[in-house]
Give the backbone structure.
Amino acid sequence: MVDLEKLTPMMKQYMGIKSKYKDAILLFRLGDFYEAFFEDAEVISKVLNIVLTKRQSAPMAGIPYHALENYLKKLVESGYKVAICEQMEDASRAKGIVKREVTRVITPGTIIEDELLSSDNNYLMSVIFEENYVSAFIDVSTGELFLKIFEKLDELIDYVKISNISQIICDEKLYEDLKRELPDIFVEKLDEWYFQGYDEKIKETYKLASVDHFELLESEKKVLGGLLKYLEYTLMDSKVPQKPKKLEKTKYMVLDSKTVDNLSLIPGEKGKNLFDVLNQTKTSMGARLLKKWILQPLKDKNEILERQGLVEAFYNDQLLLNEIREYLSGVYDIERILTRLSYGKVSPKDLISLKNSLLLIPHIKEALSTNKKLEDFASNLDEFREVVVFLERALYDEPSNSPGDGNVIKEGYSVELDDYRNLLFHSEERLKKFQELERQRTGIQKLKVGFNQVFGYYIEVPKGQIKNVPEDYIRKQTLVNSERYITQELKEFEEKIMSAREKVELIEKSLFEEIRVKLLDYVENLRVLAQKLAQLDVVSNFAMVSRLYGYTKPEFTNSEFSVKNARHAVVERYISDFIPNDIYMDKKRRMYIITGPNMSGKSTYIRQVGLIAVMAQIGCFVPGENVKLPIFDRVFTRMGARDDISTGKSTFLVEMSEVALILDKATRESLVLLDEVGRGTSTFDGISIAWAMSEYIYNEIGCKTIFATHFTELTELSDVYEGIKNLTIAVKETNNGVIFLHKVIEGVADRSYGIEVAQIAGIPEGVVERAREILDVISKKSELEKKVSVLKQGQLKKIKSKKKIPNGQLSLFEGGVNG
Ligand SMILES: Nc1ncnc2c1ncn2[C@@H]1O[C@H](COP(=O)(O)OP(=O)(O)OP(=O)(O)O)[C@@H](O)[C@H]1O
């Protein structure tokens, strides 16, 4: 316990402030350092690896003020909330103890400082549970704000995992669940009052008398109110974020986190991914938008065609494409500049970057309007002439980054500032002149005018010349070889310069603030422009990569999915001789069972089908020829086998829960891609489940499905159902072993070549030989094949007519394959 009686006044001030920020690390500004005390000191010394000292047994640790940002980054990344307490007045002018206040609370989701952010989005999410899981999330650095509702906790968790959400705030009820399910995310529980009085909070924030036109549900308002209050608490400012956008489930193709991962859509653990292949955007705004588009492919045909139309226009006009991309490379991250502008953290250089970006708009408009198909887009771009002219007049082209030093506001903008600046910046010349006149007056040629912190300007005379010093010199200091004096005139001059310095600081700072406030009126419209530029960046980027990699424009159908020479957008970038393969599916021919040796290219083929669907629906061209495909409502994938160690589920349980999700959620408009199902259990159980599942998907759901498997028994499904076909991958056997041709053909794999692959992988020759002998024996003895062929005859017909049993569970083979 700290004995308050024994504390100095400053430590009492510290304790008072700390009591309001108990859950944060308080960094307390003391001169040139930010100090932490007690437990906070112990934490930061450990996390930041800095020295822990003690004052009267109280642990303390400090970080130099100029290195704050580096240390902050580490603390926030390590999952701490940090409150920054600043000195609110100049220590030299304070009467008594310097006033101090917390000016900012930094958490992973509320960072606006550019140095602490990557160019990616960074979201803070607020969630409550009221019938559904209702969320509001914002990227504070760009001001974008979304609302989204999830029916199940799993869906929410899944969304968080793929969406660059770095922090969640919630009420007591959800806290434990979210903390457990999202161990890598900073989850914070808020007091109840955050989610009360939301109507008032929203009205106050958006300066509206009523929020009816936002068309929000009560629960949406509640979760949004909590978010707005939290922003005020951390950013100490109630700046207006953008109006909330509702993310309706029905607007976008659904991609769960497993599918995002299985298809390697965005950078993650698997390395090579679609985002990296497609991303040649010129702005950070474009890169962020591209990622958003990849994670939310469109479902509305008109919207897709609109995007595709822009891509096509650029694709066909290469000269324009290159010109626009050249302009875009000069566009800065306007979204983030606008946020810093709103939060009073904008720098003079930011405003010049904004101006320079705006200067490009007339060129972009002019260029775009030369193409009929891009005219409309061009006419919707505002040039913000007023803002440009204003910034031209107000700021130097290369301003310093600290308003107040006199190098920010342009000459001619303020007469008053110019006068003081003149005095300050030309003081050197005046001093030189003064020195010259004094030399002449006294005849002391070695007389010098200098400056020090203790008594300001002085005249220095060498010891040997003291006799010539005039009456009006007042002695101030004696040194070994010289004496230092001041005069009335020099003192007055000094006061003028000092006051000029103060005035320049004061005036320039307040002019800069005035400029900032004036620009606030334009923020909302400038954001619209920023979004358009981001779109322009992504569509022109699509045209660019489509040309570069030979993608073609897909055409949308009601059901047919056909592509000639389809390729895998990511794999083809990393191997030199990728073999293209065709895809053909329609209403009838809607399920493929692919069998084939290990390593032959089954997974690559089914993933490329998924990637083509995603690419088409984000408006991009796709790797293939004569591409026709329907619009899918969701792509499901079930691939690989991995233990979910963090949740204690076994490989097989994970596999079965993924299958359960597909059977429950897939519709006729979905695309289902399965790479091995039923491998995590015994062969008989596995085949039975895979068989029953395929039947259910084919009969009950009726969606397009590709299923890669090593169970050749499943290929017999094609004998029973007309729309199920078999594919395999061609293999050439030579005297030196097998060659995988990676060519997909109709048919069934006759062998799995597992032993050949084992040999290639380096399994000792003896073991490989022995495996061959064993294979020889057991394949002769295999009972399995016989049993499945029994199914084919009488029993299969019976099973075929079986439907779902009432409780929603699947009826497995009655009597089973063993029976
Ligand atoms: N169309 C193709 N053209 C050229 N190379 C390919 C092609 N498809 C796959 N490959 C190469 O073959 C390798 C194995 O492919 P893939 O993982 O798809 O095989 P698989 O049949 O699914 O194997 P397994 O059954 O062992 O999972 C890939 O890493 C790739 O290098």
Notes: Residues 571, 575, 578-579, 596, 598-604, 742 surround adenosine-5'-triphosphate (CB under 6 Å). The two ends are 74 Å apart (CA to CA). Residues 555-750+782-800 form a domain with the Rossmann fold fold (CATH 3.40.50.300).
